[in-house]
Amino acid sequence: MRVLFTTFGARNHVHAQVALAWALRAAGHDVRLASHPDLADVIARTGLTAVPVGRELNEDQVMEELREREETSREEYDAATPDAQLLLAMDELRPEKLTYDHMHGVFTAMTSAVFQNYSSAEMIGDLVDFARGWQPDLVVWDPLTFAGAVAAEVTGAAHARLMFGLDLVGRMRESYLAEVAQRPPALREDPMEEWLGPVMERYGGTFSEDLVVGQWTIDPVPTSLRLPADLPYVPVRCIAYNGRGSIPPWLREAPKRPRVCLTLGVSHREVMGGDQASIGELIDAVAGLDVEVVATLNARQLQEVDSLPGNVRAIDFVPMDELLPSCSAIVSHGGSGTVHAALLQGVPQILVPGTMWDNGIRADLVARSGAGLRLDAESLTADALRSALDRLLNEPSFAEAAGRLRRETLATPAPRDIVPVLESLTAEHRRRTATGPDAPRDDLVRNHA
């Protein structure tokens, strides 16, 4: 079958799709990965075939605009209602806070400021045009890239979301629709339908909830850490991929003392929250400890550090799946790729999250599991980090809990194992009315005899 993956132009979102895309390709399926033109080279370097769609997104510029919007939202809301949550955030889980007014505001703000930016009219048009010509059987789309769902619905392809982290959209959507159902019919507004409904009308279709949450969802989050949502999920083991790399000579030898990975993500100069905790302070915190610290910092981030302590090795990039097996602990910003890689290797974690998407909730979930500790960026001190590291390295309970999550992760089907499931679901959901070259192909039902 033909499988079209799609995501907006963010490198880590492309990386989240690579393992499954290659599993399908290795099983004999034809695979393409569509994204904004600025990611074409990134996709090509994974060995997959890139399909540029829409205009260049310029991820750095988009993230800067979102940070500015979020700061403006914070100032306006804090001035009016100090306890109000930011509208550009979907990570609210407290039932008493999930009112209709709050969730309607979140979906309104996110639709206009984020979703329509990531799936612009140009991107949707290009993706639909490509799908009409290529006729995919299955579209696998990033949960923030609704253009994939539109292209699938227009062409009759089956489609599924592939999560990169926690399902914040699905979780809030469930609560929001329950609140909407309690309102008089004339007052049942839905920002997502107001956006995607007219989009579908231009292609002769109509809005359905599948455009928001997919026909099913492929989820790499371990079941014990998944947010509750009454949606069909296909669990898959998260296989770490963070770009091409090679093993440095020093990594071939076992560390002589406990090795700690310190990674903050290349898009952040400071630990999630801007000026709340500097890289220099974190480096100072591990200076003098009887550990070997491997800090994945780029040249820009190292500008904040006057000099590196003798126990700290700074390296711009090293494959996490090669580094983490030798580590006794990891300190990170709580990004999904980093945390999933640590879960797979059973490494205890110290998480210092900020407001970026689901990092805070993920940090809480890992801490509740017993496999790590959460430190708040606002109150982070060198003493607090040293104390947390001492606990992670010397209290066996953290390694034991991390080991349990590793066993749960390894027990989850690998990408190659769910290929027959995806084939079956595609055969069930795919709808075609065309004849000739666009008609259903025999290869779609392969392996289902």
From TrEMBL:
**Domain (Erythromycin biosynthesis protein CIII-like C-terminal): residue spans on this chain:** 281-425
| Name of a matching Pfam family | EryCIII-like_C
**Coiled-coil regions in this chain?**
none
State the UniProt keywords alphabetically. Antibiotic biosynthesis, Glycosyltransferase, Transferase
**Mind telling me which InterPro entries this protein's record contains?**
EryCIII-like_C, EryCIII-like_N, Glycosyl_450act, Glycosyltransferase_28, UDP_glucos_trans
Record CDD domains: GT1_Gtf-like
Q: Which GO terms describe its biological process?
A: antibiotic biosynthetic process
Q: Where is the composition biased (Basic and acidic residues)?
A: 439-449
Q: Which NCBIfam families match?
A: glycosyl_450act
What one GO molecular function would you report for this record? hexosyltransferase activity
- Kindly provide the name given to this protein in its UniProt entry: Activator-dependent family glycosyltransferase
Erythromycin biosynthesis protein CIII-like N-terminal domain ranges (all copies)? 22-265
Which stretches of sequence are listed as region Disordered? 427-449
The record's family statement is: Belongs to the glycosyltransferase 28 family.
Source organism of this protein record: Streptomyces tsukubensis (strain DSM 42081 / NBRC 108919 / NRRL 18488 / 9993)
